[in-house]
């Protein structure tokens, strides 16, 4: 990797990790922000092969994201809409609920490469509309549950009856 003063990296020089989950999700990626010592922003580089996505359809309650399409084309799912995306597009994904859920799909016949930038919040709640899950993340806490599995706020806090 070509790094100047540990603050500059060229994406062409980075060693990417490979991720694959079932037949739907796959990417070659690197978390650049961590490598360069970023404190308040997370930034990553992903190359997604044809027919794949790097993550499920989801929204964030605390972290805002931005994507910049470096190479290729695909489809953006955003809330209830879909649209074609291509090299040079900048995508804004503010915080919110299902109306800001997003996913980038590579439905082309060539690799799709993008940079993602996000605010790094100490705690986050993500919603996954397709699978009806909610994730709570903060520090070492990483908890996923189905939205149907709600507990009463007072359960196990006070005697029943």
From TrEMBL:
Keyword RNA-binding: no
MF GO annotations: metal ion binding
Pfam families: Cupin_2
Keyword line: Metal-binding
Keyword Metal-binding: yes
Family annotation (SUPFAM superfamilies): RmlC-like cupins
Domain Cupin type-2: 47-117
InterPro entries with a match to the protein in the record: Cupin_2, GPI/OXD, RmlC-like_jellyroll, RmlC_Cupin_sf
Protein name: Cupin domain-containing protein
Organism of this sequence: Undibacterium jejuense
Lineage summary: Bacteria, Pseudomonadati, Pseudomonadota, Betaproteobacteria, Burkholderiales
